[in-house]
Amino acid sequence: MAVWRKLWSRNLMAASLLVCILLHTMDVHARPANMSASKDKLPASKDENEILPPDHLNGVKMEMDGHLNKDFHQEVFLGKEMEEFDEDSEPRRNRKKLIDIFTKVDFNKDRSVSAKEMQRWIMEKTEEHFQEAMKENKNSFRAVDPDGDGHVTWDEYRVKFLASKGFNEKEIAEKIKNNEDLKLDEETQEVLESLKDRWFQADNPPADQLLNEQEFLSFLHPEHSRGMLKYMVKEIVRDLDQDGDKKLTLSEFISLPVGTVENQQAQDIDDDWVRERKKEFEEVIDSDRDGIVTMEELEEYMDPMNEHNALNEAKQMIAVADENQNHNLELDEILKYSEYFTGSKLMDYARNVHEEF
């Protein structure tokens, strides 16, 4: 696994698994972590979150660390309205919002949603995530470009990053200027080296070792750049590829982390995680069904603006709730399967559906 993601995510993964076991609310999408590797860690600061590439990318099927995005269906169905469907929200209010969404997806107003209509909607919602990322990037870029010259050097970014980690900004800037030893701990140094590699990957040719605002967007959000999407895919394949052939077999894709958890509930989580990975590998990612996933196949799978993928996703989403098997989605079906589409389960979903519609 890429160094900076491994070091910073392993503690959160371990803690999440422990909570799942204690509360008996297992998330079948979670990948179990090696409990023995966990250690206490403070949450990331606001400044750090603004300038550090995120693990999670809205509207992308796979996380930066190779996990499947368990919220993908909701992200591409709800777009920027996703946070409004809170588990604590009043069910009747959520039902009305879902009915409103249905009427928007139903472009030809025939009271059913076809795969083409759902595909169109998915592309619109994905574009919303793109626009939101671009908006956030403007603020992030200003944070690392204090002189406002429209370009950021690696040293400028390095100073801001280390300042977000608690180092004295002026002292670090002076040491870098004088080429002095920064005396960083091993973990921070490894994170910086990994970020530096990513930084230069985002530097479009002709390389000048400076990032403008668009290149900085690619640095934080590789889904916005074909070149950085390729880089992201290479990183994921490198993390999972056990024999070094730059391809993924099913066994490599579903392999569990080093270490085991010893109780039955944790084993059940393992089993569910493997089952879901196997299904995604065989039915979606491995497009030619030859048992091997190439970098090209993984890149196509992860490209959020791939219209063919959006159509396949639309068909899959409809199939989940298509109880009458007409290959379309009716209002009562989407309300009944609201938890799949919104993450919020509606009570008495069918009550007054026709009146409200």
TrEMBL record:
InterPro entries: CAB45_EFh, EF-hand-dom_pair, EF_Hand_1_Ca_BS, EF_hand_dom
SUPFAM superfamilies, alphabetized: EF-hand
GO MF terms held by the record: calcium ion binding
The keyword Ribonucleoprotein belongs to this UniProt entry's keyword annotation: no
Annotated keywords: Calcium, Glycoprotein, Golgi apparatus, Metal-binding, Repeat, Signal
PROSITE patterns with a match to the protein in the record: EF_HAND_1, EF_HAND_2
Protein name: 45 kDa calcium-binding protein
